[in-house]
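ASSEMBLY PREDICTION REQUEST
Request ID: AP-0331
Submitted by: J.K., bench scientist
Number of chains: two
Total residues: 798
Priority: normal
Notes: Please return the full assembly, not individual chains.
Input sequences:
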Amino acid sequence: MASSLDVNPEALPSPPGTIRPVTTPRPSLNEIYGLPIPLTIHPVPTFFPTNPLWLLQFAYNCVYQIFFSSSHPNPHLKGYFSLETRSVHITEESTTKILWQQGFFGKGSLSRSEPTWLNREMRKRGLLAKVTSEEITRKRREERKEFKKERAKKEREAIERRLKEEGKLPTNDAIKAQKDAKVLENGHANGIAVINENGGPETTLEDPLASADASVEGTRKRLGTDINGGLQSTQLGKRDAGAPNMAVRFSADFDLNQPSETEPAPPTLPHRSEVIENKEHLQLMLEEAFFLVYGLGVLDVVDPETHTTIPTPSLLRLFRHCSYFPPISTRILQPDDPFMLSYVVYHHFRSLGWVVRSGIKFGVDFLLYNRGPVFSHAEFAVVILPSYGHPHYSSSEVHKKETEAKEKRSWWWLHCVNRVQSQVKKSLLIVYVEVPPPPSYGDNESMKDQGTNDINALFKTYKVREVSLKRWIPNRTRD
Amino acid sequence: MTHPKPVAPDRLSDHLIPISLVGGRYLVFDIDVITYLRAQHHICGVLTGSIPHLPQQNVFLGIPIELMPEEVRLLVEKGVAFIVDDVAWHRKGLKELRDEDKNAFLQTLETRGWDAAKVAEQWAKERSENALKKQGMKIPTSAETSSPAATQEEVGSANKSDNADESLFFNSSPPQPPSPRGPFHRRAPTTPSSPHIITPTTSYPPLPSPQPTSLLPPVPPSYPLYAHLHSKNYFLSPGLRFGCQYLAYPGDPLRFHSHFLAVGFGWDEEFSLLDLVAGGRLGTGVKKGFLIGGLEPENEREVREGDGVKTFCIEWGGM
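STATUS: Completed
Returned structure:
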C-alpha cells in the first residue's frame, strides 16, 4: 500500500535506524477521505456572462469529459465472488484503497475494519513506525484497565485509612492477616464486623515482626495465583503499615501488571531488503458489492471459476440465494429474502448520504456513520424488521401464521438490543421494510417474475419506515 | 385490622397454598405466604401493589406479589400450591352461602365495627381534652356544646349507623340520609352511638376456603431452563430490565447481584446470531454472564439422568 510510506511524526519511538526519513507531512483526513463515493465529479466552471472566454472553457470541459474523462473508474473495479464466505473479495491493492478511502466499503480480512495487516506486519518487523488503529485501541484498553485497577486500589486504601483513623485496623498478627484477605473479599461492611470481633485497636504490638512477615508472605503466596492484582497490592500496603521496614514492595504487582503478550513486539533488526507479501484482501458484504454494482456502477463482480463478469440481474439472484443458509439454488425466491430486505435498507441509507457498515459487533444489522468511521463514532444502529402490511399476507391463515413468526419479536429481545446500544451511546433505529406481495399475487406485471431483469421496478415495490428508540428510565428522567 | 388468615403461618408447609388467578395474573396476597415462598422455595415474585390514592408512586410497591407462570407451574408441580380462579370461586361461594353463615359473618362485622367506633370515640375525646388543656380551658361536660371536631365525628358515626347492616355484597336497602340531630343530643363520649362500617378485605372467610384444583398454568417454552436453574438453587426473577428472560441470583436478590442473564430456547429453535452478540455484550457490560439453555430431546440425550437441560454461558471477548 502506498500509504505505508507515510510516517506519522507522533508515532511511538522506535530504535534509531528503523524509521524511514520523513519525506512528506501526512495528509489530513479530509484529503485522504475527500470523496464520499468512488465517483469523480467534474463541476461545470463558474458562469461568467461578461467573459466570452467562458464559453470556450465550457465547451472544452464538455468535450474533455465526454471523450477523455469519466466519472466512473475506467476500467471498472474488479471483485471476486466467494461463495464460502458469502462476500466479494477485492484483491488488488489499488482497488482496495479506492473502496476504503472513498466511501468506506468493505473490511480487511485480517483487520478490524481498515485493511492494515501489511502495516502492522511491517511495524512488527521494524520496517515502519506508523501506528495502526488496532494498536491505539489496544493501548487505550490497557490504559483503561490500569486506571480501573488504580481506582479500586485507591478506594480500598481510603477505606483502610478510614478504618485506621477509627482505630479499627487490625494488628499484624497471623490470624488477622488471614482474616484481612477475607475482609477484602467480602467488602467493607463485612470487614468492620469481622475486625470488631477482634477487639479493634492495636493492643498486641509486641508481636514478633518475623512471624508477621512470614504470615504476610504466606498470604501473598496464596494470592499469587489470583488475577486481582489490586488485592495483592493492598495486602502489601497493609503489611507496610504494620511493618514499615519492608524490603520488597509491590514486586508481585509489577509482575502482574506486565502485560507482556499485549504489548507490541519490540522491533527487531531491520531487514530493509525484505519485501512482505500482502496477504490481506478486502471483503465486501453482499449489500455493499451490489450497491457498487447496481447503485453506482463502478464494480464488476467476477465469478472465480469462469472468470467472467456476472451480469447484474443474475448477480441479484445469486445474492438472494446466498442470503439463506444453507444457500439452496432450487429455492424459489421470495419477496422477503434476507438480502432483499437488507439491501433495500442499505440502499436507502446510502442514498441519504450515510456511510453504512455492518453492525454485527453491536448485535444489529447496520451502523450508520455520519461521514465515516475515521471521523466519528456511529450515530445510529439499525435493526431491520420485515412488515407485512399488504392484504395478501392477511388473506389466509397460513400466510398470517408465517408472517407473524417472521415479524414477531419478544420484549426481552428489544430491551436487550436497546440496552446494548445505550451502553455504546448510539440510538437504536428500527427499520421496517414493507414487503410487497409475492409475484403470484394479482396481476401486477412488474412483479410477475421475482427474477425479473427489471431491477428498478422490483425495488420500487419496497417501502421503508424508520422508528427511532431510546432507553428511558423513569427514575433518572424524573423532573 | 387483623383478619383471620386462610392458612395459619406456622402450618404453611402442611397446607396447599392458594394462588389467585385474577385477570390472567397470578397473585399472592398473604404476607406470610409470600415470606414462606421466598424463604423455603426461593420464589420471590414481583411486588405490584400500589397505594390507591397515590398510584403515581410506582417505585416502591407493596403486596400483592405477582408470580410468573413459570413460578406458579413449579409450585404446583412440587405440590406446594394450587391455582384458584378467584372470580369463579367467589361467585360460586356467594351463591352457596347459607343464611346462618351470612348472619354470623355480619354479626362479627358489627362487633368489630362497635369496637372500632369505641376506639375512635375515645381517641376523639382525648384529642379534644388535650386541645382544651393546652388552651387552659376546662373540660366541657356532655351537656355543653361540643367542639366542632366532635360534632363532625358524631354526624359521621350517625351516618354510618344507618348503613351498618349492609355489607359489600348484600345490598339490601339504599342508604338513608342521616337523621337530623343536633349536637345537644349527644351521648356520653365513651359510648359511641353506632358501630363503624367494616369493609371486609378478604373473601375467605366469609366464603369457604378454596378447594385445591389440579389446574396447571400454561408456561412459555423456556420453562425447562427455569426449572433447571431453580433446581440449582438459583433465585430467578423476570429479567426484562436486563433484556433477558430470567435473572439468576445465587441467593436472595436482596443480598446478591445476579450472576446470569438467562434466555431459554427450544432445542431446535432457530435464532439469530445477532441475538447472541447483543446478549453477550450486554451481559459482559453489566458484569454478568449471558446464559442460554434448552431442553435436550429424550432420544438425543447422551446421559439419561438429570433434567436434560443444557446451558451455555457466553461472554463478550472484545478482541
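REVIEWER COMMENTS: Residues 1-9, 143-189 of chain B have pLDDT under 50 and may be disordered.
SIGN-OFF: pending second reviewer
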